[in-house]
Amino acid sequence: MPKNVPLYLRKAENASEVLAQVRHLIEAGGLPADGKLPTERDLSVQLNVGRRGLRRALDALEAEGLIWRRQGKGTFIGQPPDPTGKLAASISAEVDPLSVMEARLCIEPELAALCALRAKSEDVARLRVLVERIDQTSDAESAELWDGSLHRLIARIAGNPILLTAFSLLDEVRSSQNWQDERDRARSPAQRQLYTRQHQSIVTAIADQDADAARAHMRDHLSHLSRSLQVLREKDAS
C-alpha cells in the first residue's frame, strides 16, 4: 500500500496503530444506538489485527475514558468521539517527527495549562493511572501506547476544540512506525525514569490547578524529548 495512505486505511503493524484503527472505527459511526462495539473476536477480524494488540488498545481507550465495559454485556463508547481524526490522518503521513515536536512544543504546554484549570478530581485520578501504566510497562511498544493515552487525555480535558483539532494531527504521527522506531531509540532506562518524573510533575501541577506549572513542566518534558531525537539524528548523519 502506498506510503501516503492514511493510517486508518492501513493494516496495523503495532499496538499504537491498532489503537488508531479502533479509534477511527468509532469515529466513522455506524455503531448501534447504544454505542456497543463488536466483540473482540469480530473486531479483530474486521480490523485484521491480533487479539492481543486489540485487547491492549481497548485497555488504553478504557483508561482514557473513551469506552467502558460491562461484564456480560460488552464494550460501549463512553464519550463522543473526536470528529477530527480522519482529517488529521489524511494529511499526516509525510510529516517528520522533529517537525511534530516543534508543533507539540507550541500546542501541548497550553493544553496542559488549560487542563489544570478544567480538570476534575476523576480526571486527575485517570491521569495518574496512565502515568503508572507507562512506568510499569515492560516493553517500549506498550509504553508508547500508554504515553499517547496520557497526552490525549490531557488534550481532551483541556476542552478547546480548536487546539484538540491541532493535537489530533500531531497525535496521528505517533501511530506511525517511523515515530515508533525513533521514539524507541530515545527511551533508555535512564530516560524512562526521567520521563516518569516529568509526567508526575505535569499531573501534580494539574491536580494543584497550577496552570503556569503545568505549562512549564509540559514544555520541559517535550523539550527534552525533542533534544533526544535531535541527538539521534545527528549521530545518524555523522
TrEMBL record:
Residues 12-80 form the HTH gntR-type domain. One of its GO terms (molecular function) is DNA-binding transcription factor activity. Signal peptide: none annotated. InterPro entries: GntR_C, TF_FadR/GntR_C, Tscrpt_reg_HTH_GntR, WH-like_DNA-bd_sf, WH_DNA-bd_sf. It holds the Pfam family GntR. Keywords: DNA-binding, Transcription, Transcription regulation. SUPFAM superfamilies: GntR ligand-binding domain-like (SSF48008), Winged helix' DNA-binding domain (SSF46785). PANTHER family: TRANSCRIPTIONAL REGULATOR, GNTR FAMILY (PTHR43537), UXU OPERON TRANSCRIPTIONAL REGULATOR (PTHR43537:SF5). This is HTH gntR-type domain-containing protein.
